[in-house]
């Protein structure tokens, strides 16, 4: 892969946009993973120092606050509206497109595809107000669902919850998520140049929840970062399948546009059968396919490019 350095005469606004994206990448790759590796050692050192009281207070805070990600999170409208997210949006840029009005009296779960390398589209659209979610869908409160791992990292957990994130789509907490107006992100496999959608959402739980399923397709998401090739069966692809943090890429700059499709009514069934799950699965796949086909020409794809499911 060829690496090209930016010229020195880059406008200040563009440099600020790049800085906004870099701080976001640093948050996930360094702040989260590095803290995971170092927090235990740091906590022990702090506990043995003259600052032991701080360690005790924070340990108590973690104990009291441990269930917050599963019981609604702790969002901050102020942080969601930071100007840094506008620079983040404009770097790529990111766009959220409404295709139909959504009733604010109902609950929805958004299935966001594809996940991409670091879920830039889902983060920018649902964890910030940079793309105007509250303006496009007044009365709805978005929550991005994430893996439990991220909420076990001290300090970082509080940072991501401020954007409205909650614990992942696990059956024990799904009912909590959809009592408010929830948003789900699925499929973390990314493959530049291809359009693959992994439907690993909690369809079983959806059948017993009072929520409608809404497909979202992010055109350009897989191209936001220049990635190492990861064809099916390759060692890198196998590593990605085993761990959701195994993405290897370089920052790029391509547009990510995310049209939001029509909601799919879900029949509430306390004990859904396999046929119920398969039926919902097929309806969702068709709705996502229709959304892709309807908008692909607008965003530069040709007639021969189609959505495939993995």
TrEMBL record:
One of its GO terms (cellular component) is endoplasmic reticulum membrane. Keywords: Acyltransferase, Endoplasmic reticulum, Lipid biosynthesis, Lipid metabolism, Membrane, Transferase, Transmembrane, Transmembrane helix. Its EC number is 2.3.1.-. It is a multi-pass membrane protein. PANTHER family: ACYLTRANSFERASE, DIACYLGLYCEROL O-ACYLTRANSFERASE. Belongs to the diacylglycerol acyltransferase family. Belongs to the Bcl-2 family. This is Acyltransferase. It comes from Acanthochromis polyacanthus.
């Amino acid at each position: 892969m060829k690496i090209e350095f930016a010229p020195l005469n880059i406008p200040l606004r563009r440099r600020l946009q790049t800085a906004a994206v870099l701080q976001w990448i640093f948050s996930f790759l360094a702040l989260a993973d590095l803290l995971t590796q170092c927090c235990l050692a740091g906590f022990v050192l702090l506990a043995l120092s003259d600052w032991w009281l701080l360690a005790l207070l924070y340990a108590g805070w973690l104990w009291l606050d441990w269930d917050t990600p599963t019981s609604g999170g702790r969002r901050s409208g102020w942080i969601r509206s930071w100007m840094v997210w506008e620079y983040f949006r404009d770097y790529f840029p990111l766009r959220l497109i409404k295709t139909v009005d959504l009733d604010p009296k109902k609950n929805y779960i958004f299935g966001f595809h594809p996940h991409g390398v670091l879920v830039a589209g889902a983060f920018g659209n649902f964890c910030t107000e940079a793309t105007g979610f509250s303006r496009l869908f007044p009365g709805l409160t978005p929550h991005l669902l994430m893996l439990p791992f991220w909420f076990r990292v001290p300090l970082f957990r509080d940072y991501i919850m401020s954007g409205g994130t909650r614990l992942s789509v696990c059956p024990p907490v799904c009912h909590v998520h959809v009592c408010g107006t929830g948003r789900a992100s699925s499929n973390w496999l990314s493959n530049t140049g291809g359009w693959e959608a992994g439907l690993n959402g909690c369809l079983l739980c959806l059948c017993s929840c009072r929520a409608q399923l809404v497909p979202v397709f992010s055109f350009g998401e897989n191209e936001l970062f220049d990635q190492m090739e990861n064809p099916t069966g390759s060692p890198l692809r196998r590593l990605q399948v085993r761990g959701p943090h195994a993405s290897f890429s370089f920052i790029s700059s391509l547009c990510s546009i995310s049209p939001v499709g029509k909601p799919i009514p879900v029949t509430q069934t306390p004990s859904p059968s396999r046929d119920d799950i398969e039926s919902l699965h097929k309806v969702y796949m068709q709705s996502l396919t229709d959304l892709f086909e309807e908008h692909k020409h607008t965003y530069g794809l040709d007639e021969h490019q189609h959505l495939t499911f993995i």
